Amino acid sequence: MSDPAPSSPALMACQECDLLQRIPPLPVGGRARCARCGFGLAARPTDPLELPLALTLTALIVFIVANAMPLMDLEAVGRYASTTILGGARQMWLDGERLTAIIVTFCAVIAPACYILLMLTVLLAARRPPLPHWSGELLRWGLHMQPWAMYDVMLLGILVALIKIAELATVEPGVGMYAMGLLAVLLPAISVTFDAREVWELVEWKHGDDRAAAALVEENFAGRGR
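Now predict its structure.
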């Protein structure tokens, strides 16, 4: 049996009743529901590009604040200390925890920075279609980087550490901590409000690239359950 054409509607299993069904092209603001149980399968945002652009610009500003300002102020036995995300990773490196320092730097700095900058470049370019084919390549990399921006996991680790040292020292959250918490909300918000298909349709693909692009769109569409 031959594979369905790239232009055929996406085949998706309902998360509630497992019914396989194809999702037709949706109008702006439209939603698709399961034919059996009525569960929401997909939705097309009413503002698929402008809202993600605003959220991405906000995330860029907050990201700069999160990395430039101290995460917390620590007082113990009359001594004071404060650190940033990179400062903490550097101290881990100096203490011999080099693998941990590399993971923290990648997941808290490199991956979020790449994701935000790549998304910002694509969304700004999308304001003046058609997009050059390299915009699709940037979007591919951005979608690959997004799962590695783990501010929620890092915040959870910091909270566990703070609970353990609460009786030994006085800890005051810094501006960087609040910025990290905001980023933990902004990054998923960008992913939820952004529909990659809106960008793929604006890209001028080279010959032979349109099939690969369509496959990646369907993979991203089905993986997010939208």
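Strands lie at 10-13, 20-23, 31-33, 40-43, 72-76, 79-83, 170-173.
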